[in-house]
Design goal:
The chain is mostly helical and 338 residues long. Helices cover 76% and strands 0% of the residues. The chain has helices at residues 28-58, 70-83, 87-95, 97-121, 126-137, 144-150, 155-167, 169-181, 189-213, 215-221, 225-243, 245-276, 280-292, 296-306, 313-337. It is globular, with a radius of gyration of 18 Å. Keywords: Membrane, Transmembrane, Transmembrane helix.
């Protein structure tokens, strides 16, 4: 059985997409079922987000006034993520501190640095530059666990890195954004810390508590959580796109180039970091996705609240693209492994 979390909100095998958390089933029939469910998740989610983005672009008036709801929608996704967590996720961090620390450092060094470099290389306007950098400073992406599974990577390591990168986001994302994006726009790091605590950390912890207190009832709801998360993220994308619909026609091409570069280089450098750290092939594959895939929902929420709807555009595009590129890369790595 498979689980997921960003595009989907779970990290455990009980739920599916910021997650597929699962050890490979021992029986071939279960393995086939898990693969089928995982592929369905990473296929449906990008399509759902793409449709939502199109609705936001074509019918922006339908989402007028929705921008204030984005933090609450993100809180729903993070709560679903917390509900799928178990003590085993945290024990995995203690078992492999070196590998998890390497993944954490690689994530918060490579992606923010790439965001800053790409903003300069493409000479992006201030709003878009800040948006690209903010995506790079976000924690690990929601579908990273599921694509690691499909790529035959080290899922346990993927889950551990994703969990820690999310929990430390309130301490890391704001100062990194201030350091790298401050030259483009004013950044209120203190206010950003508060927002991340409210929209990420508290909902995740609330989900963990609910899982511990009402595990029997939560178990029944787990299959539906990934899809609740997927629909919620799609709504966030629609709202973000609608807020900057007038500017998208002129900026979409440039933003797409920036996102493709950001994500592609992140995947490659993440894999390289795993090889340099001697994590082996499965561990390197996990590192590729934990570095190259971002929590774009959080980036979109923060950009909308602290910068402008236009600054949230890179996060909206990243939300679609990194799931597509992740699924394709996972399929290629899986075939190469065979």
């Amino acid at each position: 059985m498979i689980t997921s979390r960003d595009g989907f909100a779970s990290r455990r095998p009980e739920a599916l997409p910021r997650t597929v958390r699962t050890e490979r089933p021992e029986r071939p029939s279960n393995d086939v079922t898990a693969d089928r469910n995982a592929r369905r998740a990473v296929t449906v989610f990008p399509i759902l987000v793409l449709v939502a983005g199109a609705l936001g672009l074509l019918l922006p008036g339908s989402f007028k006034g929705w921008s204030e709801s984005v933090p609450y929608l993100l809180g729903v996704v993070m709560f679903c993520m917390g509900v799928t967590m178990t003590p085993e996720d945290f024990r995995g961090v203690a078992r492999r501190p070196w590998a998890v620390a390497l993944g954490l450092v690689a994530h918060y060094v490579i992606m923010p640095g790439l965001g800053w470099a790409i903003a300069h290389l493409l000479d992006l306007p201030p709003q878009l530059a800040a948006g690209v950098i903010l995506v790079g400073c976000a924690p690990s992406g929601t579908a990273s666990n599921v694509v690691t599974y499909l790529a035959r990577g080290d899922v346990a390591l993927s889950v551990s890195v994703a969990t820690v990168s999310t929990l430390v986001a309130p301490l890391v994302t704001p100062p990194l954004t201030l350091l790298l994006a401050g030259e483009y726009l004013p950044v209120d790091a203190g206010s950003m810390v508060t927002d991340i605590l409210k929209t990420v950390l508290l909902p995740v912890l609330a989900g963990v508590v609910v899982r511990l207190v009402a595990g029997r009832y939560v178990q029944r709801a787990l299959p539906g959580l990934p899809w609740l998360s997927a629909v919620t993220i799609a709504v966030i994308v629609a709202v973000v796109v609608a807020g900057s619909a007038d500017a998208i026609k002129s900026a979409a091409g440039l933003v797409f180039v920036a996102v493709v570069l950001h994500n592609g280089l992140g995947l490659a450098l993440g894999y390289g970091a795993g090889r340099l750290g001697r994590l082996g092939e499965p561990g390197s594959r996990a590192m590729a996705f934990e570095v190259g895939m971002q929590n774009s929902g959080l980036a979109a929420s923060l950009a909308t609240a602290h910068f402008s709807p236009l600054a949230a555009l890179p996060a909206a595009v990243f939300s679609v693209w990194h799931n597509v590129s992740g699924a394709v890369t996972a399929a290629w790595l899986s075939r190469r492994g065979r």
